[in-house]
Request: fold
Amino acid sequence: MDEEEYFGDPNRLLAIKRAADLWKLLKESDHYRYYGRAVGLNGPTEETAEKMAALARIQGVGICYYCPKERDQTLFSELAAQNFQTDRHEHYRGGNAAYSLANEMMKSRSLPADLKVVQLNRNSPKELVGAVAELCAAQGVTPVPGSIMRGVSLPGVVLAAIDSTGEPIASASSHQMLKPEFRRGTDVFWGALSTRPDRRGEGIALILGAMTIIHMWEVHGARGFITGVRHDNISSQKLCAKLGVNDTEWMMAQCINTEILGSARHTK
Reply:
């Protein structure tokens, strides 16, 4: 793979590219984390609002992970005073129980007979990587750059369920977000579960989600799996619960620069 692959909404590609360049400067610091969409704070600091605003000015969005929920009004008021839009996802996390439940899931469930699972890698055809990215985008999940989908520039995994025509109909992913030796370094991003509407209800995303948890635990040493879920997304909450990924006392707070993103709602 010689040239980076970018996918998704053309209006957001600038933000994705800026985030990738910003990460090159910040990846040696344990104050930040990144999995392909935006660089975020690895927890609140004494200058949380100021740093989130700075990130938003550069890449369109500033995120604070592990932000206590009781800080939402104060933090969002500080950001609104700087003329930024705000948003949030509830911060879900799974640990040992997630790994155990994922293994139990794989013993009791299997994919429909017409599907096979492929893991994207350095040698995956561009057409396949692009098709998986298109599937994600169609389900409201912003695709990450190709080198990350392939597990080249960040340790991680993207799995896709492929039907008999070679078309991806579901996917799941998990990526390391900072060096494992850093603070919360073994907590990895997990999720981006996407299923084509006509194949929903077959448990495909659940199986792929379990497979990614097992892979990251056994191959990359992950010990925590974090993801953002909206408070009203009941289906995602139920799926996460089946795999031991549950709501926490934290939120993923977001500060949004609409001049770059063009939207007050940042897709996860």
Notes: The chain has a mean pLDDT of 94. The chain has one domain: 10-261. The first helix runs from residue 10 to 26.
